[in-house]
Amino acid sequence: MTPRPKLCERSHMERECHCCGDGREWSVTEIYDTVVIGGGIIAAAAGQHLTAAGYRTLLVERGDYGAGTSSKTSRLQHCGLGYLSAASGSIAAFLAHPRSAIECVSLMRRSMQGRAEFVRLAPERVKPVTFIIPLTPENAIPRWRARLAFRLMAASDGGKVPLNLRILSAEEARAHPALQGMVGLKSIRGAMSFTEYQYHWPERIVVDTVMKARANGMEALNHTAVRGLAREGDLWRVTLTAAEGSRDVLARAVVNCAGVWIDEITALAGAPHIRRNTGEKGTNIVVRLPESLRGVGFETMTAAGAPFYLIPWGELHYVGPWDSASDGRPEGFRATEAEIAAILDQLGRLFPSFGLKREDVLYAWAGVRPRSLARDGKGSAPVVREHDLTDEGLPNFFIFTGGLLMTHRDAGRRLTRAVARRLKPSGPPRQLDAPSLHLPDMDQVTEASVAHAVLNEQARTLSDILRRRLSVGWEPDLGLRHVERAAKLTAPHLGWTPDEMAAKIADFIDETTTEFNLRTS
Predict the structure, then answer these.
(1) Residue 6 lies in a domain
(2) I need a surface site. Which of 239, 279, 383, 391 has the fewest CB within 10 A?
(3) Are the C-beta atoms of residues 373 and 277 closer than 8 Å to each other?
(4) Which structural domain, as residue segments, surrounds residue 254?
């Protein structure tokens, strides 16, 4: 088998190579300005913005870029209506929790601004989706209040990306194709229709962001874990481990963007008492709904007040989320039968005429969202922000909590400003968004597309290739019909023997059926 290049090989920076007592090789590089820990969208955005600001940056991810929470989301560039709804309760509720209400309004503004920015910069990565919200006797709001809410949202981004609000009368709502079969349709008060944007492929957005940063000078290592963090004078020594061995690097600052594992990384730095994160699991199921809902999104609330969506996904819909507390353990990234049953039950209550059963679920996914820990240490808070832990005993150690795909560029800017308050960059600023490179056959498994994924974009597994470098892993069978061809094309580049190739195929099939509860018959 041809090994992956050793961690101690030279890059654009000079390195001293040494040998550990157990024969593994490691290296001490020239000092990095920043080491970014994590490979999700917040880490990618942090690396991109820090590099553009002139900071010599290394990004390290223990799995693959975009393989964790960034891949297991609602896949929506939300307009922020949910935050505004949470902030616009009664006056008594506002007076009781003014900080929370103000934070919700701030999140709405940042969501709208992030929406406008991303739709302008990467229109090929999103598509508009019409959503409809039925106004039932339980949730109906006055028309003036709905219009005011949408005017506030439109003002937040200067009206750059239209929301296309339309308020339907009760008669119009009862006749709307997407509401046919809904329980309580006769008593409906009306409906709201508006435009959201859906990410075609959030995993690719993460990879794109990392690759743009690499083209700008950032170093990045996937499939490389952080095993140690220790102060050494005015620097941080970061111990990295990959299949090829271990490596130590030095950094002036550490930027911890490890998502739901943020507290785990902070504990490695010697501060297990500092907790800023809590996990919230969200589960979705994928089903085929009636033709009347094709291409239309549906949004409502559960009896417990949680948002519940039917979101178009090609000819299918994904439905959920079903939320529960969780941490970063692997089982948090798998849907349970109880969660699938709960979503089916909720869907059956909304649309009893659909008559969907467990065998109608094609597959499911689950992810653990990182949420900012509430000030009292119990539960989560609607807070998305950077934290500088210098005054808590961790000099030049920064973390980000509550990170969201839809505001990732804002997160990158905020973290860069936080670092800049402590450290000056060692290099000159660079252009933030390098021109996108031509990517061959991203929707096909070809010699060119696989070679590009492995040789230019650091793909090392079949999942890396089929789900995050190419889009075929999100076809209805989740890429199973492509796996053998992909393996044959990958083997020469990574030096897989026939036995290793067969094992890689088996790994992909097992991962797909296990992580996605894929129905195979």
Answers:
(1) no
(2) 391
(3) yes
(4) 25-68+208-277+375-420
HSE, side-chain direction, 13 A CA sphere, residue 405:
29
436 within a domain of the structure (yes/no): no
Q: How many domains does the chain have?
A: 3
Longest Cα–Cα distance of the chain, Å, equals 78
Q: Which residues contact 95 (CB under 8 A, 6 or more apart)?
A: none
Q: Give the pair of three-digit tokens for residue 58.
A: 């290394």
For the segment 59-82, the average pLDDT, to the nearest whole number, is: 88
CA distance 24 to 366: 37
Residue 106: the pLDDT is 81
DSSP 8-state secondary structure symbol assigned to residue 430: -
Give the pLDDT score at 471: 94
Q: Tens digits of per-residue pLDDT, 467-506?
A: 999 999 999 899 999 999 999 999 999 999 999 999 999 9
Torsion angle, CA of 482/488/491/493, rounded to 10 degrees?
-80
Percent of the chain exceeding pLDDT 90 equals: 62
Q: What is the CATH number of the domain that holds 362?
A: 3.30.9.10
Q: Is pLDDT of 400 > 90?
A: yes
Question: Which of 419, 389, 310 is closest to 356 using CA atoms?
Answer: 310
CATH number of residue 231's parent domain? 3.50.50.60
Regarding whether 302 and 190 lie in a shared domain, the answer is yes
- The burial of 233, by beta-carbon neighbours within 10 Å (0-12 exposed, 13-18 middle, 19 or more buried), is given as exposed
pTM given for the model? 0.88
**Tokens linked to 64:** 């693959």
Dist. CA 56–CA 28, nearest whole Å: 15
**Does 288 share its domain with 360?**
yes
pLDDT at 13: 40
